[in-house]
Amino acid sequence: MRLFDTHTHLDAPQFDEDREEAIARALEAGVSKMINIGFNRETIPTTMKLAETYDYIYAAVGWHPVDAIDMKEGDMDWIASLCSHNKVVAIGEIGLDYYWDTSPKEVQHEVFRKQIGLARELKMPICIHNRDAHEDVVRILREEKANEIGGVMHSFSGSWETAKMCLDLGFHLSFGGPVTFKNARVPKEVLAQTPMDRLLIETDSPYLTPHPFRGKRNESAYVKLVAEAAAEIKGIDLQELAEITYANALERFGIV
Questions:
Q1: How many CB atoms lie within 10 A of CB 64?
Q2: Which residues are annotated as a binding site for a divalent metal cation?
Q3: Cα–Cα separations (whole angstroms), residue 72 to 33, 48, 109, 110, 234
Q4: Where do the annotations place a divalent metal cation 1 binding (predicted)?
Q5: What CATH number did the domain enclosing 200 receive?
Q6: Whole-angstrom Cα distance, residue 50 to residue 88?
Q7: 88 has which bridge partners?
Q8: Mean pLDDT per 10-residue segment, the chain (256 residues)
Q9: By the 8 A CB rule, do 155 and 180 touch?
Q10: Is the CB of residue 154 less than 8 Å from the CB of residue 127?
């Protein structure tokens, strides 16, 4: 069985004591590919180092909306230059975050639009962070013609109505730990209706830890728990769910 964790943060300080062991546990659990996300000035270099060190770890690089206010002249050129690296498979995570009050909305919007424009120019898929900003995220994706490149709605948390709009724009929906939570009705309902060819799984480790480890540090090995929950929701066996989501990820990120 092959699993693909399409969104992880293995360079996070939570892994400083056992990073190699956590990666080994992921491999033992059947996770044969992972995408690590570099989202600001600190994490982009550490993400690139991981991608260059491990054959099976790929990179996405972009500027997170929480850090939008810290983006300086030249950072967009830096991201653009890294996109020519053979291990960089997406621009992200980018988007809007109205939960953490760190970057003004207008700054977030500007940085988001610029990165969509860059992705269109480079013909790269984008990885979208959306927290409490569903309407504006979809509107900006439409206005900036993100349908020309598509991408992934990371850790999708919206309604089925929002999901349909994202699917119409050519995006895949990625689900993580919350679909294992007993009372997470909406993510489960959305996953159940998501077309199989648009479904991805992830951990967002070290965050959003699935049941039964909720409250503890998440890690890429736990994507198997997400796969098990998704297979149950879809009414198919784990092997089939794993193979379909693995193939979807290869295609979406252009990995040969």
A1: 24
A2: 7, 9, 93, 129, 154, 204
A3: 32, 20, 15, 13, 44
A4: 7, 9, 93, 204
A5: 3.20.20.140
A6: 11
A7: 59
A8: 97 98 98 98 98 98 97 96 98 97 95 98 98 97 98 97 98 98 96 98 98 97 98 98 98 96
A9: no
A10: yes
> Nearest to residue 76, comparing CAs of 97, 95, 62?
62
Cis? peptide before 93, omega within 30° of 0? yes
Task: List the binding residues.
Answer: 7, 9, 93, 129, 154, 204
Q: What angle do CA 160, 115, 152 make, to 5 degrees?
A: 30
Residue span of the structural domain in which 19 resides: 3-253
- The alpha carbon of residue 58 and the mean position of all alpha carbons in its chain are separated, in whole angstroms, by 12
Report the alpha-carbon distance of residue 166 to residue 247 in Å, rounded. 20
Distance CA 160, CA 54 (A): 37
- 256 SS3 class: coil
Amino acid in the structure at residue 165: M
Q: What is the residue type of 107?
A: V
Reduce the DSSP state of residue 196 to 3 states and report it: helix
Look at the pTM and tell me if it is higher than 0.90.
yes
Neighbours of 188 (CB within 10 A): 19
Helix (H) or strand (E) holding 225: helix 223-234
| Greatest alpha-carbon span in the chain | 49
Query: Dihedral of CA 152/156/161/162: which sign?
Result: negative
Number of domains in the chain: 1
The letter for the amino acid at 187 is: P
Among 192, 206, 194, CA closest to 235: 192
DSSP 39-64: -STTHHHHHHHHHHH-TTEEEEE---
- In one-letter notation, the amino acid at residue 115 is Q
